[in-house]
Specification:
The chain has 575 residues and is of the alpha+beta class. The chain contains 17 helices and 22 strands. The strands form 5 sheets. It has a 9-stranded mixed beta sheet. A 6-stranded antiparallel beta sheet has the order 6-7-3-5-4-9, with no helix packed on it. The radius of gyration is 30 Å and the shape is globular.
Length: 575
């Protein structure tokens, strides 16, 4: 693991509000760490550690400062009794389960909850992925913390604050029999493994799901099911979950149709929620950098659709209900934005806010679909994509699960619009909106329309990089402008001509350089003269030669072109 990876991952956890410390492969801190129980290390300090300890592992201080409590289950321990939450697999073959730190003091403890199970709380620390264990194996996330941490259940909290004997000691004093009787084992095992598989990626079903089910069977079934019978239960639920994730429950139609059949079909004209931007029956991606008005803009769109007024005072809309599923913003901020735009109260815009909804969770998807069928919105806004699924956004297979779920929410009289972020820029040169999108390229492949936002102060450029139903509209400008009532509105400013204006200015600069020169000029010479980028010079010269305003007056021995104005006359075509 290189120092850059260590630093980037440490910053990831630092951004979550966790107090980070450097530890070695023997799990011992590499610094005096007590002060970091009271205050977080700065990003600069973390960078200093990565430089000073290039092979360091990443540790997190547990307790109130970081806001986490970790249940540390060693290899062979039973994790089935603990509710699903963020979880990592340790390099030693055990598990770390991450819970929100409760509002009562919790101390570190050993074997208090169960055999082979410790608790890391106030005054403790633990090792985080992708640290390397002394065995040489890496810690890895099963369910990442960005998906949210669960609360400690009251029964576990009571045991953690109880000063009676640890659970491990009590177990040796009592009958070791399981608590699920013979007639209920299959049904209980089915429900248990169904919940487990909902919360973990498919590639961990065998290594995590099956191992967890075996642990449940050994500790809770009385008597334990035969492994062959347990495997039948696991296989059955695994296949059911697979069908739910990839949408393969419905049979595929392999009956072909002919071109003659196709010519006989009449296809209705496209219908739009927002003309030219959001078609009915489609999935639309709206993407941009952080703080580029994405959420603000979609709330403006929601208000326009709810009232049937033109979006940006330019694009016509159809009136209808809007459902906003917002896992990014607090309801207070949602309210503030609508009030800033002077939007009147209405029951035609409804919300789900910070509920922990995951569309790739079959149970969540079923409830969301039921709500949509009841409310019948013409537009569903998902803010943002990364918060609404449990997969890895760089994994094509895991993103396909999320989009298979999203497609189940679309209908002929409804569109889905989701917000997604651009990756942080690296290097020089501006990339197109589709190239800038964070995560797998399958994200753009899966949508019907893509709208990219590029903010410049209170103005922004809107570029449509994909539209299946018609040619993309030209980029346009819009602004967030104050009104005389003291509110703010988004306004259409017309076609974006900034690139044309820039190219026109470059063309004029090149012509002026050629006029002032007493000799012909090459691209390299024009670059030296004008200080413009070569790529822009070549693009401008191509247009100028095409229009006849500049000519290729000579060609050098190595194919280098020399340019001049039309009135220049040369006797020879070479130099």
């Amino acid at each position: 693991m290189d120092s850059k990876t260590i630093f980037n991952q440490a910053l990831r956890y630092h951004a979550l509000g966790w107090s980070i410390i450097p530890v070695g492969q023997e799990k011992k801190p590499l610094i005096s760490w007590k002060q970091y129980q009271q205050k977080q290390a700065t990003a600069q300090k973390i960078e200093e550690w990565t430089l000073a300890f290039p092979n360091m592992n990443i540790g997190v201080v547990t307790g109130e400062l970081s806001g986490i409590l970790i249940i540390d289950v060693e290899a062979g321990g039973d994790i089935s009794q603990f509710p699903p939450t963020a979880m990592s697999k340790t390099g030693g073959g055990g598990w770390h389960l991450f819970y929100k730190y409760p509002n009562v003091p919790i101390s570190n403890s050993t074997r208090k909850l169960a055999p082979l199970t410790d608790v890391r709380a106030s005054g403790g620390y633990a090792v985080l992925p992708p640290s390397i264990h002394a065995s040489g194996k890496a810690y890895e996330w099963v369910t990442p913390p960005e998906n949210g941490l669960a609360e400690i259940p009251q029964d576990l909290l009571k045991r953690l604050t109880d000063n009676s004997k640890p659970q491990a000691e009590l177990q040796t004093e009592t009958n070791n029999a399981g608590d699920v009787p013979q007639g209920e084992r299959n049904d209980t095992a089915t429900k248990f493994i169904g919940r487990v598989l909902h919360y973990i990626p498919q590639d961990l079903w065998e290594s995590v799901g099956w191992v967890t089910l075996r642990g449940w069977n050994a500790n809770h079934a009385n008597p334990p099911l035969a492994e062959s019978e347990l495997r039948l239960v696991f296989t059955s639920i695994k296949e059911r979950e697979q069908k739910a994730r990839d949408g393969s429950a419905e049979p595929i139609n392999f009956t072909p149709f002919t071109l003659t059949d196709l010519y006989k079909e009449d296809f209705p004209a496209a219908k739009w929620v927002v003309q030219d931007l959001v078609p009915l029956g489609t999935i639309v991606a709206l993407t941009g950098d952080a703080n580029s008005y994405k959420t603000f803009l979609t709330q403006s769109m929601a208000a326009c659709v709810a009232t049937g007024t033109p979006f940006l005072d330019h694009f016509t809309t159809i009136p209808g209900k809007v459902l906003i599923v917002d896992e990014e913003n607090h309801r207070m901020h949602i309210k503030d934005r609508f009030k800033q735009m002077g939007v009147n109260a209405t029951s035609d815009i409804s919300f789900l806010s910070l509920n922990g909804i995951k569309i790739d969770n079959p149970e969540h998807l079923a409830h969301l679909k039921e709500l949509i069928e009841k409310e019948k919105p013409v537009l569903v806004i998902l803010d943002s994509l990364i918060r609404l699924h449990g997969g890895e956004e760089n994994s094509a297979s895991e993103m396909s699960i999320a989009f298979s779920a999203m497609k189940k929410l679309v209908s002929d009289d409804r569109a889905i619009l989701f917000i997604h972020h651009h990756r942080k820029p690296q290097g020089f040169g501006k990339k197109s909106g589709s190239q800038s999108i964070r995560g797998s390229s399958d994200i753009i492949a899966a949508v019907d329309s893509h709208i990219a936002i590029d903010r410049k102060g209170s103005d922004f450029i809107v570029t449509q990089t994909k539209m299946r139903l018609q040619p993309e509209i030209k980029p346009f400008m819009a602004s967030l402008a104050p009104t005389i009532e003291g509110n703010y509105v988004f306004i259409y400013r017309g076609e974006d001509t900034s690139e044309k204006d820039q190219m026109q200015e470059i063309c004029e600069t090149l012509i002026n350089a050629l006029e002032q020169s007493s000799m012909l000029l090459s691209v390299d010479m024009l670059e030296e003269e004008t200080k413009l980028p070569k790529s822009k010079i070549r693009q401008a010269l191509k247009e100028l030669v095409k229009s006849g305003d500049v000519i290729i007056a000579a060609v050098g021995p190595h194919g280098e072109h020399f340019f001049g104005l039309p009135q220049a006359r040369l006797d020879s075509g070479t130099i």
